[in-house]
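User: I'm putting together a small comparison set for a docking exercise, and I want a reference complex before I start. The sequence is below, and the ligand is NAP. Could you produce the 3D structure with the ligand included, as structure tokens?
Assistant: Of course. I'll restate your input first, then give the structure tokens for the complex.
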Amino acid sequence: MKNAIVIGATSGIGKGLAKLLSENDYNIGITGRRTELLEDLKAQKPNSFITKTFDVTNTEVISENLEALKNELGGLDLLIISSGTGDLNEKLDFDIEKRTIDTNVTGFTCISNWAFNFFERQKSGHLVVITSVGGLRGSGIAPAYNATKAYQINYLEGLRQKASKLEGQIFVTDVRPGFVDTDMAKGEGQFWVASVEKATRQIFNAIKQRKKMVYITKRWKLIAIILKGIPGQLYDRL
Ligand SMILES: NC(=O)c1ccc[n+]([C@@H]2O[C@H](COP(=O)([O-])OP(=O)(O)OC[C@H]3O[C@@H](n4cnc5c(N)ncnc54)[C@H](OP(=O)(O)O)[C@@H]3O)[C@@H](O)[C@H]2O)c1
């Protein structure tokens, strides 16, 4: 058996991945703020899941919770960060921007640091983060969401560079979904919306192959190429 922690496993992609891991010889520590949803998931397979309720924006409690989960599991091979938030914010309400930064930047960084430092000491481990195709360009309707996803993408590239200079086998995977059918998928004009099952199946395959980066679903790579190729002057008017 291997051991994993999934941050943000109460719903959506994180819950789907936690279930898939439980069918593939993993014991899993699952986290989120909604205790009852963690307990519902645990009730489906009591021997596979250990739960911990905490808010990733409260960085004071992150290390102690992750340390406790790792010890209860008896080790850690894989940590997946699927916690995230993002709201449309055309009026630039700072409370929304701050919540997005606290979750997707500060919480993400604190968890990544704990995981990377542990994997460095252990000389092995795999960090997987659900970023977004949105991180490739700015967004006028959700500025903080796209900017925080760009931060995650760059941060993970930095960690991969750091890992390549270390002894041992530390892997870092950047998972970039387009649209997946969860509470998070917001706004008009959605297309190529993947089911959670299809998205998590593709993510799990990428984890097994220890990919550096993957688009979910695969055809979002095409959108990524187009997005990155649009000149700034034209992009501003879209
Ligand atoms: N769905 C899409 O179309 C899409 C596209 C691109 C990227 N993504 C990314 O995929 C990741 C997962 O999102 P999802 O689509 O699965 O949406 P979701 O169903 O809303 O899941 C979000 C998860 O994050 C957790 N979370 C949020 N804020 C938290 C906080 N402050 N502390 C602890 N946990 C927190 C939630 O748990 P609690 O509420 O219980 O705390 C929940 O488990 C996000 O990073 C999102 O940006 C999604």
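Strands lie at 2-7, 26-32, 49-53, 78-81, 124-130, 169-177, 179-180, 193-194, 213-216. Residues 2-236 form a domain with the Rossmann fold fold (CATH 3.40.50.720).
User: Thanks, that's exactly what I needed.
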